[in-house]
Design a protein that fits this description.
heterodimer; A: 383 residues; Peroxisomal Thiolase, Chain A, domain 1; 9-stranded mixed β-sheet; B: mainly beta; 5-stranded antiparallel β-sheet; 3-stranded antiparallel β-sheet; 1 helix; globular; binds zinc ion
Chain lengths: 383, 144
């Protein structure tokens, strides 16, 4: 028998719940809203789905609630992994290998409290003690993601001469993209003076370098190439993909803070396609913190290692530039979606649905998620 | 010195059998790192197995306390009540001289911000935080 070729996977539906702080919605309600929005986008019924993956939900409970059964694939991913892409790549792999034919992926973010809430007076603030690896961080006042992001940012600056103004140029470019996205929370233009005046959270990391925490449900529906033409929207195809880990979940003691899991992920992704970085029309690169987008620009080969700062400062990543990046405004402006927004924006760009922020004739896009210990990425195309 | 009534305790480690030695040694002003007795690699943070040779012959090994500064960040926002009046402080990832990539998270002290340089040589300073907790901080190495 000839070896079975992996199925080509397509994206046929995307959707969001109501998003925001204090939406009043439960995690279940975020899941239901996002799931129905993606089904509606695809023009699909729950019975068309035979697979589910989620981070932030419970695969079986969510599938049952939404009337999706019987299932041929289900997976609830845990937190130690690259968020949306972790769940999405399991959906893609399940379809490519033939486990299931149509899989919905969720990233549900609910009640991540602002840090101020964690600081509220707690009379019993004498903890019993911190165990595990965290015992090597907490007593030092370390362990916040903003702090490892500060460490990664500082190392890039020290090693390559990257400047705070170059980080600012990225934040400003993303904000200009957000101005063209009516779903973004932050749409007013930002000046370099305003960026430089923004407070540090963990110097050199500023508050404007951080994604905006909010409640959000995101859903994406993947299916086989054979079925992709049966639904409402023009299919977008998954050309290549990779899921990478180089160590356990410890950002603060990475061997290399400027070049870690993304270069491995990118090499794996590019090895499975004839497309090259110069074929990409727009890139949607994770921006949980600004430095992460910088690392992905280098890892994916859009610029050389260490040159992401000048690459951005020259305007290459703006709409109309050589490689528009984060055309929805990024999670700093549309709010935290843990990577789902980048898959959804790439899909919408390749469908030509992006209105004022549409990249002309976009045929190839890439989305990425994660940094440090682990990450994931996928290259998407429109036929 | 009497502690004010409202004083908040620092986050305390809850060591287990793998990590107890690290905290005990600090109270004796020693920096000990888990070390493989078969291949000699140091392992931090401690694990039940040497990931280089899969030996479980692991024992604490004393290190010199000399290091270089791999990266740093100035913490300006406290994430635990104890640090509310401690910010700003300089968190540092230091690389111990005993082995490449043998890294430790600590504080850089006795170094004004404009004198911080990547890869600068450092030495350990044992700082008693409470009678139960001594932390290994790092300061610029003195000329030797
Ligand atoms: Zn060994």
């Amino acid at each position: 028998m000839p070896p079975r070729r992996p199925n080509r996977v397509a994206i046929v539906g995307v959707g969001y719940s109501t998003v925001g702080r204090n939406t009043g919605l439960s995690a279940d309600e975020l899941t239901i809203q996002a799931g129905k929005a993606a089904l509606d986008d695809a023009g699909m019924k729950p019975g068309d789905i035979d697979g589910i993956t989620t981070m932030g939900g419970d695969a079986l409970r969510d599938a049952w609630t939404l009337g999706m059964e019987p299932l041929n694939w289900f997976s609830t991913t845990h937190a130690a992994g690259p968020a949306f892409s972790y769940a999405a790549l399991q959906a893609i792999a399940a379809i490519a290998s033939g486990f299931c034919h149509t899989c919905i992926t969720f990233r549900i973010i609910h009640r991540q409290p602002p840090s101020a809430a964690r600081l509220a007076p707690r009379p019993a603030a004498v903890p019993r003690g911190v165990g595990g690896d965290y015992q090597f961080l907490a007593p030092f006042g370390a362990g916040s993601p903003t702090q490892w992001a500060g460490l990664l940012t500082q190392r890039h600056m020290a090693q390559y001469g990257t400047t705070e103004e170059q980080f600012g140029a990225h934040v400003i470019a993303q904000r200009d993209h957000a101005a063209l996205n009516e779903d973004a929370f932050f749409r007013d233009p930002l000046t370099m003076e305003e960026y430089l005046a923004a407070r540090y959270v963990s110097k050199p990391l500023r508050i404007l370098d951080c994604d905006y925490p909010c409640d959000a449900g995101s859903a994406v529906i993947f299916t086989t190439e054979e079925r992709a033409g049966d639904f409402r929207k023009k299919p977008v195809f998954v050309e290549s993909y990779a899921l990478t880990a180089i160590r356990d979940l410890n950002f603060e003691i990475l061997d290399d803070m400027t070049s870690n899991s993304p270069p491995h992920c990118a090499a794996e992704m590019w090895s499975k396609t004839d497309l090259r970085p110069e074929d990409v029309d727009c890139a949607q690169l994770y921006d949980g913190f600004t430095i992460i987008t910088f690392q992905w620009l280098e890892a994916l080969g859009f610029c050389k290692p260490g040159e992401s700062g000048p690459f951005i400062a020259e305007g290459n990543t703006r709409l109309g530039g050589k490689l528009p990046v984060n055309t929805d405004g990024g999670a700093c402006n549309v709010g935290r979606r843990h990577g789902a927004n980048f898959c959804i924006e790439a899909t919408r760009q390749l469908r030509g649905e992006c209105g004022e922020r549409q990249v002309k004739d976009a045929k190839v896009s890439v989305f990425s998620n994660g940094v440090g210990p682990f990450c994931g990425a996928a290259l998407l195309t429109a036929d | 010195m009497p502690q004010p009534e409202a004083a908040v305790s620092p986050p305390m480690p809850a060591p287990d059998e793998l990590t107890q030695f690290f905290w005990d040694a600090l109270k004796e002003r020693k920096l000990m790192i888990q070390r493989c007795q078969e291949c000699g690699h140091y392992i931090h943070w401690p694990r039940p197995l040497c990931r280089f040779c899969l030996s479980s012959e692991l024992a604490p090994g004393e290190v010199s306390g000399r290091a270089t500064l791999y990266s740093w960040t100035i913490a300006t926002q406290p994430f635990h009540p104890y640090f509310v009046d401690k910010v700003p402080y300089t968190l540092a990832t230091v690389e111990l001289v005993e082995e490449k990539n043998l890294k430790l998270v600590s504080h850089l002290i006795e170094c004004p911000e404009d004198e911080i340089k990547v890869d600068m040589p450092l030495e350990v300073v044992f700082q008693e935080i409470t009678p139960e907790l001594t932390l290994p901080f790092f300061k610029p190495a003195t000329a030797r």
